[in-house]
Specification:
Largest sheet: 8 strands, mixed
Number of helices: 23
Helix content: 25-40%
Structural class: alpha/beta
Strand order of the largest sheet: 9-10-14-13-12-11-15-16
Radius of gyration: 24 Å
Oligomer: single chain
Length: 609
């Protein structure tokens, strides 16, 4: 069934048109730059003989001859490989697979460059977390450095986790005249059930089990090569690359080091090689990453209860394509996009169960048939998102695709539009005298959607944990953690607070969190108004809150406010920020320029462009 714009849900069409109109000038400027780059022709043809000789000096004889002749396309490999992080360790094998597949496809592949890959799971609660968000922009710049050698006709981006995929796409968009295919690694096998993992974490926070028990549980959860299997930012990244048409169909959640994964990697190489300006199927990234693709990404995020970090990353990625997204777009789409998946922390299942139930192909088909996604888009495999309603498999050892299951294999994990878990996407924009914020409700019980309680104000998460351990938070409370925005300290995730706040909530207290920092891609059951903007370090009103002020978080009406008389509120001076707090240690001094340049959270916390 081919979809026309008239068949789109009216809200999806309205938001798409609004984004297109808002972005008209910046998008045309971006596309003009990409047209100029395309018209200059094959990049290697512009290099001097000395330049080109340097570019293929280490190649073998056959690749060297092909690069000299300018007949075969040259595919750049930009990889986030390292062998400390489970999600990226499988990429060690990819260059050999890609180079072999490139030769079979009549192309050359060169490893153009590596990009850094931080793990928020390693840095949670540590000083290194204050580098994490800005590592996205560093990755974008590193991608630009890798591609700046002008040796390449297409790009394969190898990345998975939180800031890596957004950074790779942001960097690749500066070379949007080239075809770009994203190549994932896949999830690790399922370990300790997520509910059990959360239970042990909460017991540890309460002092009822020791570090040995906690470490045993964590090691049984994160235990093998591959992506962590909960539905945080890493797996949200993979789903979004599918919905945007930047993966091969069904590539997101195939396990690493399997014949099917290797076949998909080889096929991605062949697809990139066939999509260059040297052939007849030219499909540049600039033509794929348009406003329809980004609206599709927001819809996919909402339909699955994906990571709140993408209220930053999607805005930043879109900006790099000349497209202006904002939180109103997320909020308006969330009101009409049904929640079709329950994956931890929005449910008990992990992404392996989601994949077994029908995965991305089932989800995309349901959303397309309901008019909630644009089908009339360009993708790496051609026109139309309908190709992504098919899943890959090996037919007698050969890669093939087949239709997604007609019905979900597990309705506790994945459902159709006719019987969703919720009729809305579970992401809400909050506004009021504390500024603008986002809140994720898809993992929250309905009774927690409205909370009003006295504030307890802190300047860091360690202060919160000390108060929890001392018992002073054992009451109805809205915890305010200020000076956690991009300008203050790089906007770290505060996921370390989750077990403590969940423990208070489980004891019957009304508990909420308000912060200008991030919570996590794994935001859970405690109401958390996050990414508050303007941030406190820029004089934002959250810095006016004092201990004991009644604070209201209302997910029904979209209100975030301190219920303080206007006469008192308007006369208060915001608390002062000490810029020395994040100035040194663990490399933080190297990021002072980025902190100073960072835009607001609703502008993606960008430090570039």
């Amino acid at each position: 069934m081919e979809q026309s714009s008239r068949q789109l849900h009216v809200r999806v069409r309205e938001v798409s048109e609004r984004v297109r109109e808002r972005s008209r000038g910046s998008r045309e400027q971006y596309l003009e730059r990409m047209r100029e780059a395309r018209e200059r022709g094959t990049q290697r043809a512009r290099l001097s003989c000395t330049n080109l000789a340097h570019g293929f000096a280490a190649a073998d004889a056959s690749d060297k001859a092909a690069l000299k002749a300018l007949r075969w396309p040259n595919v750049a490999i930009v990889s986030a490989y390292n062998d400390m992080l489970s999600a990226h360790q499988p990429f060690e094998r990819y260059p050999a697979i890609i180079k072999r597949a490139a030769r079979e496809a009549g192309a050359v592949a060169q490893f153009a460059g590596g990009v850094p890959a931080m793990c928020d799971g390693v840095t949670q609660g540590q000083p290194g977390m204050e580098l994490s968000l800005f590592s996205r922009d560093v990755i974008a710049m590193a991608t630009g450095v890798a591609l700046a050698h002008a040796m390449f006709d297409a790009v394969l981006c190898l990345g998975v986790c939180d800031k890596i995929v957004p950074g790779l796409l942001m960097g690749a968009l500066s070379f949007g005249q080239l075809p770009v295919v994203f190549v994932p690694a896949g999830p690790m096998p399922s370990g300790v059930p997520n509910k059990e993992k959360a239970r042990v974490r909460q017991l540890y926070a309460e002092g009822k089990v020791g570090r040995d028990a906690l470490l045993e549980s964590e090691a049984a959860s994160y235990h093998a090569p591959g992506t962590c299997t909960f539905y945080g930012t890493a797996n949200s990244n993979q789903l979004l690359m599918e919905v945007m048409g930047l993966h091969l169909p069904g590539a997101a959640f195939v396990p690493p080091n399997t014949p099917l994964r290797d076949a998909l990697t080889a096929a991605a190489t062949a697809r990139a090689a066939a999509s260059t300006a040297l052939g007849a199927e030219y499909r540049p990234l600039a033509g794929i990453a348009d406003e329809r693709a980004f609206v599709n990404a927001v819809v996919g995020l909402l339909a699955t209860g994906g990571s709140t970090n993408h209220t930053l990353h999607l805005i930043a990625m879109a900006h790099c394509a000349g497209i202006a997204l904002n939180w109103d777009d997320f909020n308006d789409l969330s009101a009409v996009v049904p929640l079709l998946a329950r994956i931890y922390p929005n449910g008990a299942a992990d992404v392996n169960r989601f994949q077994a139930a029908g995965g991305c192909a089932f989800l995309i088909r349901e959303l397309l048939d309901a008019g909630l996604l644009h089908d009339d888009v360009s993708t790496v495999v051609g026109a139309g998102l309908r190709a992504y309603t098919r899943e890959p498999w090996l037919d007698a050892g050969r890669l093939a695709w087949r239709d997604a299951p007609a019905v979900s294999g597990d309705p506790d994990v994945l459902r159709g539009v006719a019987a969703p878990f919720s009729d809305h996407g579970g992401l809400r924009l909050l506004t009021g005298n504390l500024g603008r914020a986002v809140i994720k409700t898809s993992a929250m019980a309905p009774e927690h959607h409205v909370i009003e309680a006295p504030a307890a104000v802190f300047d860091d998460q360690e202060g919160v944990l000390e108060a929890f351990r001392s018992g002073t938070l054992a009451r109805d409370v809205v915890v305010v953690v200020r000076f956690q925005g991009p300008r203050a300290n790089g906007m770290p995730e505060l996921h370390q607070l989750t077990p403590a706040l969940a423990s208070l909530q489980s004891r019957g207290f009304k508990v909420g969190l308000v912060t200008d920092g991030r919570m996590s891609g794994a935001s859970g059951s405690v109401p958390a108004a996050i990414h508050v903007t303007p941030e406190c370090a820029c004089g934002g009103p959250l810095a006016r809150v004092r201990d004991g002020d009644p604070v209201r978080i209302d997910c029904h009406t979209g209100v975030l406010e301190a219920r303080v008389p206007e006469g008192i509120w308007s006369q208060r001076q915001p608390a002062a920020h000490d810029p020395r707090a994040a100035a040194h240690g663990c490399g933080r001094e190297l990021f002072a320029t980025l902190r100073g340049a960072a835009r607001a959270a609703e502008a993606g916390a960008l430090t570039l462009l």
